[in-house]
Write a structure and sequence with these properties.
The protein has 145 residues and is mainly beta. The longest helix is centred in the N-terminal third of the chain and has 15 residues. It has two helices and nine strands. An eight-stranded antiparallel beta barrel has the order 2-3-4-5-6-7-8-9. It is globular, with a radius of gyration of 17 Å.
Length: 145
Amino acid sequence: MQKKLYFFILTIFIFSCNGFGPIDRNIQTENLSISKEELIGKWKMDSFSYKYLSNLKNDSIEIEFYPDSTFQMNNSSNLFKNSIDNEINEGIWKIDSSHKTKSIQLNFNSDNTSKQLEIYKKGKEYQLWYFLNDPDSGERIRFLR
């Protein structure tokens, strides 16, 4: 009876929490080597991300990282609260390497909030992810070059 219980718990863990890593095993999430120069430039939100944001159905949201560690986003920090208001927002960014994973810390000037964009890599391309809820739900915002 105990073996069946352990097997049942293990099965639930594997299928509900994605227990063995990301669904796409080609995405590298840990031990990335990335420089500030590789992040500088415009990043555009992918089309899949729009399904979680208001009723906007286009691909106009971008974030641009500048060499002086500032950024500009063509909407507000409300983007990370499932809303789009099409206001320009600016702030300061830095790479956070304090864990096995890397992220970008965004500090917004307008409302003194900060957000973390997780840095992932697929092949030779980097991706920036922000999870709106539990990562297992799939609700995320992703920026690509």
